[in-house]
Design brief:
Strand content: 35-45%
Number of domains: 1
Oligomer: single chain
Shape: globular
CATH superfamily: HesB-like domain
Helix content: 10-25%
Structural class: mainly beta
CATH topology: Hypothetical Protein Aq_1857, Chain: A
Largest sheet: 4 strands, mixed
Radius of gyration: 13 Å
Number of helices: 1
Number of strands: 7
Protein name: Iron-sulfur cluster assembly accessory protein
CATH architecture: Sandwich
Strand order of the largest sheet: 3-2-5-4
CATH class: Mainly Beta
Order of helices and strands: EHEEEEEE
Length: 100
């Protein structure tokens, strides 16, 4: 499984990951709902479970993904400052280029 985190997203995520209350936890990306070949994603700080895979990214952030969930493979996490500040999670490898 693969995941891509952009530089902007990594900077903001690192601030959250480094908080004392998140010590020992991982960033979890998950599918909130899907329809057809399109999915919507969420993320939270969480522990790894038996059915999870821990992915090490090139930004030195470990991400937990549930094994066997095809729509998670190839997820991309962006962080935009304009027009509205916030995260965008998509999966361009599956033809999903953002929420609609």
């Amino acid at each position: 499984m693969n995941i891509k985190i952009t530089r902007n997203a990594a900077k903001v995520l690192r601030e959250e990951i480094d908080k004392p209350e998140n010590d020992g936890k991982f960033l979890r990306v998950f599918v909130t709902h899907s329809h057809g070949d399109h999915a919507h994603y969420g993320m939270k700080m969480d522990d790894a479970a038996a059915n999870d895979e821990i992915i090490e990214t090139d930004k030195d952030i470990k991400v937990v993904l549930e094994q066997g969930v095809e729509l998670l493979d190839g997820v991309r996490i962006d962080y935009f400052y304009v027009p509205q500040e916030g995260f965008s999670i998509s999966n361009p490898t599956k033809g999903n280029h953002g929420d609609h």
